[in-house]
Amino acid sequence: MAEQEEDFSSLPLTDRWVHKVWKVRKQAYEDGAKQFEKTPDEHDPAFRPFLQDPSLFKSAVADSNVAAQQEGIAALCAFLKFGGREGCLRTRGQAITPILEKGLSSTRAATKASSLEALLLFIELDVPGPVIEDVLPILSAKQPKVIAAALAALTQIFHNYGCKTADPKPVLKALPKVFGHADKNVRAEATNLTVEFYRWLRDAMKPMIWNELKPAQQTDLEAQFEKIRSEPAPKQERLLRSQQEAKARAPVGGGDEYDEGEEEAEEPAEIDAFDLAEPQDVLKAVPASFHDNIASSKWKDRKEALEGLFALLNVPRIKDGDFNEINRAFAKSMKDANIAVVIQAAQCLEALAKGLRKAYGKYRSVVMQPILERLKEKKATVTDALGAALDAVFMSTSLSECLEDITAYMIHKNPQVKEGTAKFLIRCLRTTRDVPAKPEINTMVESAKKLLAESTETLRASGAEILGTIMKIIGERGMNAHLEGLDDIRKNKIKEFFETAEVKAKERPKPIIGKTPAPAAGPPKRLMGGKKAPAGAKKPAAAAPPAAKEEPLAPQPTSRPAPAGGKLGMPKPSGLGGLKPPAKRALAGPGTMASPRRPPSAAPPVMDDEEPEYAAPPPQPKLGMGRGGLAGRSLAKPAAPAAAPVAPSSPGPSSGLMALERAELEELRAANDRLTKLVEESRHERVKLMSEIQELKNQNAGLIEDHTRDVLSIKAKETQLVRARSDAEAAESTNERLRRELERLKRALGKAEAMGMHMQHDDPRSPAGSVPSPSQDDVGIFRDGSERGGYGSGSNGRNRISYASTHSEEKENGDDHRAPPYSRNKMMSPELRYANSGTSSGRGSPARGFRREAGDGESVGVRPKYSSGASNYASLERPTSSAPAAGQGVESWKRAAEVTSQLKARIEQMKAKQGLSR
Fold it and tell me: What is the pTM (predicted TM-score) of this model?
């Protein structure tokens, strides 16, 4: 094992960096971090392999072994910390995605901390935009822990760098989707990020996300916001490398000056809803009938037109366009006789000015004078609306642009207009961030003094307040000259307003004048430090003549110490006394004989041009100019002639080369500016494309959800269709069964009717003497012969049954029409069986209408015996009277008729139900 470790350590760092053994990789990461920490600057060769192959850090950050991954991310942090901006730009595209996917969500706390520090270093060395662009796609990852870690990283980014350095708009657009995530940890991190945004943006962030959140989430966020509302405004905790350099350069003029500038810069950089919102094109939505309605003779039409326009203009940000006609309509509405129209026009104008901001400045001349003229109204609702409109117009312009109209209306004949204009000027002085120029201050002071002589108390108070506010801006010392000639009462009133006034503009000349000695003390340090290095480089040049040819190769170092040498050499004029000897001039070469005469006069401009290049203060050119005068004085005092040739020798060759180099430097700067602009444009284009991609992804997700919903709906419809089909099949089977039953009943009815028709005719086998009476045809069903005997007559009598008994028994007992006649005869009543079995039917009573002929010897009321083949009652005689037999026959007929009618009614009902017509 020891030999293998020695072999591994003998391998180059880049080979060990990607070795298959994780311990070797881990050791390589540690060695790389140590090498980076020991480098003297960012140009050290130790960085070169990683600059040439940035994918080395991609494999290190995404190492499969967690221990090696921890050291790999730590090595990346060391590389970024000591490698500078170039290392950041080379490795950012390779390392950020693995950090977001595997580093931030690691189980090791050290890995998480190093991953977050790497992201913060990527931002510190360049700008936050590219890092945030790479983080946003991770919010759509599949694993909730990766999304939660990315949100936590965004929270730390905005906590350290703030919303002024890092643009919050792309993240705010993605927040509503994250709030709808199923994982509670993701929603918790989204809440933390939103609270962090609220620390910086306050209520300006709400229009971006608030309407897309659930009411419960809004309630929770409001509770979190309430806890931090009382906190002071947050400050940027971590500066970009460019900001650090600017801060390092600022103390040259004094640390207080930078602090003041920083405080001043923090105030106006406040972010509001306008900065976060996307511009909306409202011109396309303006109805075509707007101009016709606004010119209508009916005030309600004019008011309704303005109300509809206000609904369109009431948005955080409006896309610039041609609003000339609309502003002319506003100006005309200011003169409207109806104050409701005036108020609505003022509200529309305020919304348009706030939506356009600086772009609205070109319409100021159209609307400001009509608004100021309308201030003559005494109603507070009108003056408040007009004042808000004037404030919105002022925010889109400046005090200098509005001052002419303001001073003109401060001498208006109407006191109401004077008072409203004076209050508007006071609000302008409080909100402006630019200190007015002296002529503007004089104009405002003169107008305010005129108000002090007014007879109305409110106008005098307004004039005193104007003067007190101006005093707050320019200071008491600057205001004393303007207060001369005023009595003590007015001066005291002005000072009272001075003490209570709150302004945003700050007078800059005083701090700058007080700090002028500091820059004078600063440059000598640089000059002293700059002289020592080139002075040592010139000594070998003076000793050896061939070195004079190499001297022009470093013109800039030699040109800088020249004024410094003059500065330091003032007590030693002997250093400049060597200007007369021509020996040193000959050393510069034959081609430069004429150049030493020109540089003395041309040297000061060269120094002036060169000074800005090194960011030196203005006193330095004066020192260079004074060098010539000192040289004149130093000729009288010879001392140290050896140092004399060094100073004059440099201007000759360096001036020509410096001019060439300056031209080349200007070209390079121009090319650098062009490239910088191209880079910025491409970056903005990339941001725009990324936002479009994100929007398309959101649209795609919405379409997928709609498709899934449609598929589920289709499946539900198919299920309903299958059920309907099964129900239809069941109904068809029921219908078929009922149809068969109906056919059977029809056949049974037909048979019954045929049987009834047959039974109505006379039986041909009956005797001629037996003739039924008309009463028999009307009432009876059967016509029995008077004398029937034998088996045939008995069976015939048994088979002749009534329609009612047959069909009713079939219906009630469920017997089919093909059932044997025995079953039906068996079911017949005994009276019918006995009546059909003898020579006398039992119904041959006078009521039934049977009449016997003269030769018949049988009595009417005596029932004959049954035949031996028809019944077991051979010798049975059943005497019946004619009256009971007639009553039973009528009852049987009525029953049969009733059952028949019931059966027909049921058949008709079934036909109607099945849609059949008889």
Answer: 0.51
